[in-house]
Amino acid sequence: MIRPVALFVGLRYTRARRRNHFVSFISVISILGISVGVWALITVLSVMNGFERELRDRILSVASHVTVSASHGWLRDWETLEATIKKHEDVAAAAPYILGQGLLTRGDAVTGVLLRGVMPEQERGVSTVMNYVESGRWSSLVPGAWQIVLGSQLARSLGAGVGDRVTLIAPKGRITPAGLLPRMKRFTVAAIFEMDMYEYDSGLAITHLGDAARLLEAGDGVSGVRVRVSDIYHAPRIGLELGQLLGSGHRISDWTREHANFFTALKIERRVMFIILLLIIAVAAFNIVSTLVMVVTDKRADVAILRTLGLPPLQVMAIFIVQGVVIGFGGTAIGGALGVITALNIETLVPWIEEIFGIEFFPASVYVISDFPAELRWPDVTAITAVSFLICLIATLYPAWRAARTEPAQALRYE
C-alpha cells in the first residue's frame, strides 16, 4: 500500500532539480517519447480502420451480405424462396441474380467478363452499384431490350460508349448439324459505372435477369438470391438462421467467407502495425528506466536517511514507482489527447498539409482511395493507453527495486 509519504516524496523528486538538470531533461524526453508513440499508434490505427471501412463498403456495394443458392445447378422456385427469406426480421431486402462468364467483343477488342443478370428495381435494395453510374441510364435495363451496363475500365478497353453495340459470347455452345456453334448475342451499352475498384470496373457487366436467363439457358431458374441484412456484422449468424429456415438443398454464404482472405490480411496487417508502433512506446519506457536509475544514484544519501528514520523498503520502492508512473501517465495522457484530436480531424488536416507543401500523398490517378478516411474506435484508444501505461509501470520496477536495496551505512559512509 502506498502511503502519503511515498506519494509526497515521489512527486517532489519529479520536479526540476537544482543539482542535476540532465535528469529532468531525460524525464521530459521520456514523456515526449511516450506521447509520440501513443499519438502515432492511435492515428495510424484510426486511418487503417477508415481504409478497411471504405474498402468494405465498396466491396459490399457489389457483393451481397448473404447469398442463397442451390447446391447443384439453377435455383428453381426462387419467388417462393425469396418470400420466405424476407420474413426473417433481420433481412432488409432480397433480389434474384444470374451469374455467368463470357467473352465480350467489339471490333478487334476481346475481353473476358463476369456477366450478372439482375432485376433493376429489386437490385436497388441489395446493391448500390447504380449510384456509381457516370453516363447512361440504369433504367434502360428492361427484358427483351438486350441492354448492358459496363464497368468504366471494361468499356475503355473495348472502346465502347453509351449507345454502342457489343457482342457477348456465352461459354456453352449450341449443337447444330454444322457442329458446335457458340451462342452469341449483341447488346447495346445502356450505361457505364465507375466504382474505383479495378476488379469490378474492368470485369463486370450487368444486364436484365430475363435477358441473362435466355442467353445462358437458365429457363425459370436463377443462380441464387442476394440478401441485404440490417447489420453486416451479424451476416454469419443470419446466414446460419436462413439455412435452418430454408432447409437442406441450399448453399448459404456470406461476405465474411467470400472475402475471408482479404479481410484476414487487413486484420493481420493491423496487428503487425500495432506491434511495430508499440516499440516506440517501449523505447520511451527505456528512458524511464535510465531516468530512475540516475535519480536513484543521485538520491542515495536521501534514501539512506529515510531508511535510518524507519522507512521500509516497500515504501522506498513506492517513491520511485510514483515518479515513473507520473512520467508514464503524463506521456500517455498527452499522446492520447493528441491522437484522438488528430484522428477526428485527419480528413481536414491532410488536405491542408497537401495544400501548404504542394504535394499529394495518394494521387487519384494511381490509388483506389485518394483521401485519408479515418474511423476512431474507442476500444482501440482504451487498449493503447492501457498498454502504454502498463509498459511504463513495468519500467519503474527495476530502478525502484535497486533503490529499496540501498544500505544506509554504505550510502552515508562518505557523506
Radius of gyration, in Å, reads 33 Å
How many strands in all? 10
Structural class by secondary-structure content: alpha+beta
Strand portion, in percent? 15-25%
Tell me about the largest β-sheet: 6 strands, mixed, barrel
Quick description:
The protein has helices at 4-14, 21-60, 78-86, 120-126, 152-158, 198-201, 209-216, 235-246, 255-258, 260-298, 300-308, 313-357, 378-404, 408-411; strands spanning 66-70, 91-106, 109-118, 133-136, 147-151, 165-176, 179-193, 204-208, 224-229, 250-254.
List its salient traits.
415 residues; alpha+beta; 2 domains; 6-stranded mixed barrel; 14 helices; 54% helix; 20% strand
Overview of the molecule:
With 415 residues, the chain is an alpha+beta fold. The chain has two domains: 4-57 and 262-411, no CATH class; 64-255, no CATH class. Helices cover 54% and strands 20% of the residues. The chain is built from 14 helices and ten strands. A six-stranded mixed barrel has the order 2-3-8-5-7-6, surrounded by four helices. Helix 10 packs across helix 12 (313-357), helix 10 packs parallel to helix 13 (378-404) and helix 12 packs across helix 13. The longest helix has 45 residues, at 313-357. The two termini are 31 Å apart. The mean pLDDT is 83.
Write the layout of secondary structure elements.
Layout: H1 4-14, H2 21-60, E1 66-70, H3 78-86, E2 91-106, E3 109-118, H4 120-126, E4 133-136, E5 147-151, H5 152-158, E6 165-176, E7 179-193, H6 198-201, E8 204-208, H7 209-216, E9 224-229, H8 235-246, E10 250-254, H9 255-258, H10 260-298, H11 300-308, H12 313-357, H13 378-404, H14 408-411
Parallel strand pairs: 3-8, 5-7
Antiparallel strand pairs: 1-9, 1-10, 2-3, 2-6, 2-9, 4-7, 5-8, 6-7
